[in-house]
Amino acid sequence: MKIVSIVFSLVFLSISFCAEAQVKKVLADKIVATVGDKFILRSDIDNAIIDYKRQSQDQEGVITPTFCQVLEGQLIRKALVLQAEKDSLNVTEDEIQNEIDRKIRLFLNQFGSKEVLEEVAGRTIFQLKEDFRIIIKEQQLSEQMQQKIVEKVKITPFEVRAFYNKIPVDSLPLYESEVQIMELVMHPKANRDVEEYVIKQLFDYRREIEAGINKFDQLVKLYSEDPSSKENLGQFNINRNEKNFDPAFMAGSFRLKEGQISAPVKSKFGYHLIQLISRSGDDAVVKHILRIPPIGADEINETKTFLDSVRTAIVAGKTTFGEAVNKHSDDDQSKFSGGAIAGRDGSTYVNYDQLDKDMVIVVKGMKPGQVSAPQVYTDDRGRKAVRLIYFKERTEPHKENLKEDYNRVAQRALEEKKVKALEAWFKERIPNYYIYIDESYGTCTELKDWIKVANAIVKEKTY
């Protein structure tokens, strides 16, 4: 059994609405496997593969899993759920409902409206939520059980060394030169007169809409500075319990009645004019126009002067860079990690190509241990910002070794040990389950352990 397929069982849990329409054409469904009292339908396998293809389209080098691999993932999930139920693991209704709501919001944003979503899915929102309920409960139970199985798996330095020594020298990965970079980011505050002018403009937009002179969508196209407005015309599906939205924006949205337009609302992004399109409990659909008060040279220079004084204190040893970040940074992502820039794998060692081009120019002229002068740049939302850059460390290009890459090797060794623990757990548990697998999957090498148990059960019944 290749337990790595457990990944498939978790990836394939989202329902594909494109697949939903195709399933309607199927004349008859069929049970292709059973674990205990949990059964797997042929349509579960078909939908999972169609969904995988849909999610991975436009991605290069992605290999679609086979029917055998998907079925293995489904069998693993069902077994984990059975054991979770036996061990009295629990998923609360609130946890299930929150995940259902999150998935529905995701699809509403993807398809643009409730009506389009229901048309594509061929089901009402209520029906879709019910469809999700069992799947999400199984997903969360299987994840809990998987975590329980491996939670006590630890790795020792001796095991890390043994794992490393098994790797052929010519197979050791090569790492380019990497750097550890930290940044302290501040957004200059707009002049109050400029802010009041932007607020007045938003009030004017509202009067135009209410007087029928202009439509909300038209003003979004003309004036909104939200980068996503071109794609969604300023529309969002939000939930009162969502943590990703600005609190002021959420509060301003849920104070409105359907169809009502807010007064200008200030968030960390700028000023918003919000219209509540519809609301159902904690879920709402809103549209907004974002205006960002322009920052002038005076405000930028004021921020540069302040950050220069912070840099002086750091260089003099009166404070550390991390302390300064925690006290002054406006960047939520790095504020509580000492300003560290993380790579795609979560590591704080990154290649130069993972830094923005403005930062690369500065860092290439620095030495490890230095703090840059304040740098003005444009962030990923198009806002002017000022930052200090701390060049902590640089590694030389090298072949993987335990001195420089111990944490990386240890993580891989730990994952391998967890996989072995899962394999051992399944090898012990599979014979205890009632297993049925349709004969059409009899040639699947991935399923040989499952098929062996299933065949034994058939022989036992025969005798």
Secondary-structure topology with pairs:
Elements: H1 6-11, H2 17-23, E1 31-35, E2 38-41, H3 42-56, H4 67-86, H5 93-111, H6 114-121, H7 125-150, H8 157-165, E3 174-175, E4 179-186, H9 192-210, H10 216-223, H11 229-232, E5 235-239, H12 247-254, E6 265-267, E7 270-280, E8 283-291, H13 297-315, H14 321-328, H15 332-335, H16 357-363, E9 375-378, E10 384-394, E11 398-399, H17 402-429, E12 435-437, H18 448-462
Antiparallel strand pairs: 1-2, 1-12, 3-11, 4-10, 5-8, 6-7, 7-8, 9-10
Helix pairs in contact: 2-3, 3-4, 4-7, 5-7, 8-17
Give your account of this protein's structure.
With 463 residues, the chain is an alpha+beta fold. It folds into 3 domains: 3-151 and 433-462, Triger factor/SurA peptide-binding fold (Orthogonal Bundle), CATH 1.10.4030.10; 177-188 and 296-396, Roll (Chitinase A, domain 3), CATH 3.10.50.40; 192-291, Chitinase A, domain 3. Helix content is 50%, strand content 14%. The chain has 18 helices and 12 strands. The protein has helices at 6-11, 17-23, 42-56, 67-86, 93-111, 114-121, 125-150, 157-165, 192-210, 216-223, 229-232, 247-254, 297-315, 321-328, 332-335, 357-363, 402-429, 448-462; strands at 31-35, 38-41, 174-175, 179-186, 235-239, 265-267, 270-280, 283-291, 375-378, 384-394, 398-399, 435-437. A 4-stranded antiparallel β-sheet has the order 5-8-7-6, with helices on both faces. A hairpin with a 2-residue loop joins strand 6 (265-267) and strand 7. Helix 3 (42-56) packs across helix 4 (67-86) and helix 4 packs across helix 7 (125-150).
